[in-house]
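Annex B. Sample input.
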Amino acid sequence: MNDPIRVLVADDQMMVRQGFTVLLNAEPGIEVVGQAVDGADAVARAAALAPDVILMDIRMPGTGGIEATRQLTSPAGATVKVLILTTFDLDEYVYEALRAGASGFLLKDASAEELAEAVRVVARGEALLAPQLTKRVIAEFARLSPAPRAPLTDRLGGLSERETEVLTHIAQGLSNAEIATRLVVAEQTVKTYVSRILTKLSLRDRTQAAIHAYETGLIRPGGQ
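Annex B, continued. Sample output.
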């Protein structure tokens, strides 16, 4: 059997931490290995507990979720995935959190099923969370970013034409199955392309790939 997904819950509110812990521990294949009261605590506990996914409250006293996310995901070889918890789907800080290295975000009023699925999705790195929301957030923060200066080919890290096409579809929020249908190829072939894209661009997951597509100008906010 596969090892359970190890989760660390970081939130300054005890009831929130305990609530998420109870919900996640009731789910098969997920184990909450610890709780953190703020960003600094999350960084320290992540080093000690080696979680696969961190549920990170975006606003906490002291070291907040954004700075903690940056510290956790910036080191070379960092594999932990950060799932940002927020009250509002267009919280201005979500833009900064994604740029800092978060893999996606989830509203705090999500159901137990949505919470568990979000953890599994982030752990796999296979899909964007809540495409209708995440895509909008990525597009908005990309709109606010300065225009790229280098030629597009220089910014895409030597991707092939087909890999570039797959990256475009990722940024549009398509799943592997949807991309496979669009390109008339097997889903496993798409997974191989995605893996190559992440490797060539030194990215952790699909959310970061989507951000990269917007930041490099491969796809424009509101464009196809």
